[in-house]
Amino acid sequence: MKIREAKAGDEKKIADVIISTWKVAYRGIVPDDFLDVLTTEKHEKLFKKNISEKTETILVLENNAEKVVGMIFGGVDRSREYDCEIVAIYILPEYQKKGLGSCLFKEMITSHKRHNYKTMVIWTFKENKDRDFYEKLGGEIRLENTCFIGNTKIPIVGFIWDDINRVVFT
Q: What residue spans of the chain are helical by DSSP H?
């Protein structure tokens, strides 16, 4: 496995990871009719722009065959309440529970430290079955809100790190 910065041409691969993961991870949280019609186009455009403009840090995880099987991205906190945020971290279901998420997370924290960021937030669905991942890394739920997907109001929680130097890697 290899972690590297995303480059032009990775947009579809990143979008495929996101859509494939959403359809499994968020079934029962996000309405099925929304998940069933998800396509990669919106994400491809977003990542094409972000990669070309380098507006955020985007890292990909490749398997030994150089297939993108995971991704993470983040940068300055969009709310400006914290120094930085991780916007998304996704790994294809068949590669999960192997410590790869922690590897991606660690690389992003290293990038955030290079920018002299200290405080960090990550938002996730309150019912996300894998949210204990953030707790194990030292994040604390301190924020609650909701988001709308279609006409469905879904509770979300914000994990906070007061100092990313204290992220717990086991």
A: 11-25, 32-35, 41-53, 100-114, 132-136
- pLDDT-derived band at 114 (thresholds 50, 70, 90) equals very high
Burial level of 113, CB count in 10 A (0-12/13-18/19+)? middle
| Burial of residue 52, with CB atoms counted within 10 A of its CB: 0-12 exposed, 13-18 middle, 19 or more buried | exposed
Cα 21 versus chain centre, distance: 11
pLDDT over 80 at 169, yes or no: no
In which domain, by residue range, is 37 found?
2-166
What's the CA gap between 15 and 78, in Å, rounded?
A: 21
Number of structural domains, the chain? 1
The tally of CA atoms less than 13 A away on the side-chain side of residue 55 is 10
Residue type, 67: K
- The dihedral over CA atoms of 82, 21, 14, 57, expressed in degrees to the nearest 10, equals 10
Can you state the angle between helices 11-25 and 41-53, rounded to 10 degrees? Answer: 130
CATH of the domain at 36: 3.40.630.30
